[in-house]
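Researcher: Please translate sequence to structure tokens.
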Amino acid sequence: MIALFSGFLGSGFTSPTSASAADTVRPQVALINELIEQGWRDYEIRTPAPEVDDATWARRVFLDVIGRIPTVAELQDFASDRGSDKRANLVEKLLHDDRYTEEYAGHWATTWSNLLIGRSGGNDRRSMVSPAGMQKYLRDSFAMNKPYNTMAYELVTATGSGKPGTENFNGAANFLLDKVNEENAVLATSSTSRIFLGQQVQCTQCHNHPFNQWKQQRFWEFNSFFRQTRALRRFVEDTNDISHGELADQDYAGESNNPEDALIFYELRNGLTKVAYPVFTDGTEIGKSGFVGDVNRRQELGRLMLESEYLDKMIVNRMWSLFLGFGFTKPIDDLGPHNVASHPELLDKLSAEFRKSSYDLKELITWITTSRPYQLSAVLNSSNEIDDPSIGEMPKFSRFYLRQMSAEQLYQSMVTATDASASGSYEEQERERRKWLEQFVVAFGTDEGDEATTFNGSIPQALMLFNGALTQNAISKSDGSFIDRIAKSGRSPQDRVTNLFQAGLARRPDKKEIQIAGQLLRARGGDEKEMLQDMWWAVLNSNEFIMQH
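Model: Translation complete:
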């Protein structure tokens, strides 16, 4: 059945309608549109891709904002809005309606947990990280729309236990718990500078960087901010098993054993030894004392980070890449004069606007999702065929760049598409979800703690690996199952096939797909459930289902 449908699904998109716009375009959205369109003119892109139709755009924004595809009811509700600003209204609803707060917070907590501790964070028996603690801190932060600069400061300066339910619990501590003890906090140094400031320092640990302004001296100066910090192992009572970790600031005597002048030594490639004290990336020095009572180095680091324009640029670049598929730089977390941005003026101005908004992430999301480039289809034409960043070209954002759903988005979309829900408490559901995701994670064991997923877009692979009731709900024909409910809906077989396509693909089937359904119905001897099951397999196995488009 899979082969039978592979050539048909993915076609049949409805004709695009004109993009909606609020009566008064926000100045930040106007700024994005103006500078992106100026880029088109500079590259002689006369005709960008057309604007995508409402249903496809709705599917896109649901996936990006709350991490799943919309339900049929949600699509119908969106379609019933006849206002010119219906798209802006949907963004507003997803971001601010209490009905979506939990999903919004959960989606972004997962996104940031993957970034801060990795999908496999806490799985090693020697790890002090608590994934549940990291998730709780992030979920709570996104649910209350905590300003981004506050989150960044809390994550970099946190102390306390990382495990929920323990004394002095502080979930933010999980970011650094596994990064500060080993190799003189090298991983804490490189992760903090890369994630929050867009500064790739890891290769300057041993030598000067050949292409950018980072030098070996700057690495160890930045590293000095973490030398007062220790991760303390807490064990299960009467065992050697690690229960959790606790992050603490402690007086640091330095490598010359003089806490009043707590210096560190590092070695040049020629064998000479040099000295480093805590100095921020812009050259700002702090006190040299290792006594926490004199100067708390991580708190000073947090303060200096909040004053840095790179904090603003990095989060804008990251969020833009999450919604548009590519950032203004490649890689997105490598900023500076050595790596020129595709739209430097837009990056600078949008970052300044984000700071003026008091670091409101929902505002930034609103600006991006209501801007013109986010409304475009993925179509290449004779005018914009040069816009292909997949081959190394600078992105022009004259079309929407196709990308695969994340494994987490696929999981949540499968739950949504089949109207299924895992049984048990939130913690039990989260455990089942993590168990499924862990099957795709490969850790590389580099200095950066890198990992990747082997999830390659194969829905058959995903379905075979699904555990529990979700698989059965996806393919079962039993009473009360998704297929059973679809079979009892609509006025005709064509209506029921339409419901199936709307549930999975946010569109109606085209003429050829309706014909195939009729042929299948006859081949199945009139057994409509068999036909619907076959069609459902085809939908789930299509690129159209798994792609963000």
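Researcher: Any highlights?
Model: The first helix runs from residue 2 to 6.
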